[in-house]
């Protein structure tokens, strides 16, 4: 799908304000409401916009410890990776799982938990017990310097 300046502007606004009304969105980008709504629907139907969600404050939910975990696998087979992918996908504490290169690890996980005790339980009772996990290295996040999910949509 070829994106023009209106589509890009719609995407920029919706990434920051997903609950904005169509009228206000149309006013912001300089279109009337009907063509604005058609464009939003087209962006949704083509899969450029994949969904909308609420952003929660982890600390207010008691989730005060964030960690990055590098995982090494014993074998690099499609079955091992598929099993690991499914297992970590089922863990609600895992916010992000990336298959990576250039490290001594195969995966990087971003996890959030209540405290060190909850981290220990997650790591020792669940993550290290996934078949194929052969090495784990954890780093704890002291402070989030940049925390955004908006993608650059310039032309």
Automatic annotation (TrEMBL):
Q: Which residues form the HTH asnC-type domain?
A: 3-64
Spell out the molecular function terms from Gene Ontology.
sequence-specific DNA binding
Q: Which SMART domains did the record assign?
A: HTH_ASNC
CDD domains reported for this sequence: HTH_ARSR
Query: In terms of domain of life, where is this protein from?
Result: Bacteria
Which Pfam families does this UniProt record tie to the protein?
A: AsnC_trans_reg, HTH_24
Name the keywords, alphabetized: DNA-binding, Transcription, Transcription regulation
GO biological process terms, alphabetically, are: regulation of DNA-templated transcription; response to amino acid
**GO CC field:** cytosol
What PANTHER family does the record point to? LEUCINE-RESPONSIVE REGULATORY PROTEIN (PTHR30154), TRANSCRIPTIONAL REGULATOR AZLB (PTHR30154:SF34)
Q: Indicate what this protein is called per its UniProt record.
A: Lrp/AsnC family transcriptional regulator, leucine-responsive regulatory protein
């Amino acid at each position: 799908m070829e994106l023009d300046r209106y589509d890009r502007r719609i995407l920029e606004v919706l990434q920051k304000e997903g609950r904005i009304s169509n009228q206000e969105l149309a006013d912001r980008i300089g279109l009337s409401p009907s063509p604005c709504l058609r464009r939003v629907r087209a962006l949704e139907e083509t899969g450029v916009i994949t969904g909308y969600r609420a952003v929660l404050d982890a600390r207010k939910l008691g989730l005060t410890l964030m960690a990055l975990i590098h995982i090494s696998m014993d074998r690099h087979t499609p079955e091992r990776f598929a099993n690991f992918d499914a297992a970590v996908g089922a863990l609600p504490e895992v916010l992000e799982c990336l298959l990576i290169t250039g490290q001594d690890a195969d995966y990087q996980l971003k996890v959030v938990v209540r405290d060190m005790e909850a981290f220990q339980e997650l790591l020792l009772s669940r993550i290290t017990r996934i078949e194929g996990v052969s090495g784990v290295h954890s780093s704890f996040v002291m402070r989030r310097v940049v925390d955004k999910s908006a993608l650059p949509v310039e032309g």
